[in-house]
Amino acid sequence: MKIFTYTYPPWPQTPESAARWFWKNHVCKARWARHFGFDRYTVVDLLRGKLKGHRGDAHRAAVALGLKPNPDNATQRRAS
After folding, report:
1. How far apart are CA 16 and CA 21, in angstroms?
2. SS3 for 77?
């Protein structure tokens, strides 16, 4: 029996390519969401384009799905 390690899809993703990533890697969206502490409806709505992920749990899920860049890893531009 293969033990699957849950990972994040690579960034950048579109909702369509992220949904394909789940299908190609045989990952259940509900289990993936539960593993990372997201509501499954939030993940599904992001993949369907019903949510934009502007704030809160939707934003954190969008970052995890690769739909948005991680603000913690973003390089800051310094004004000269």
Report:
1. 9
2. coil
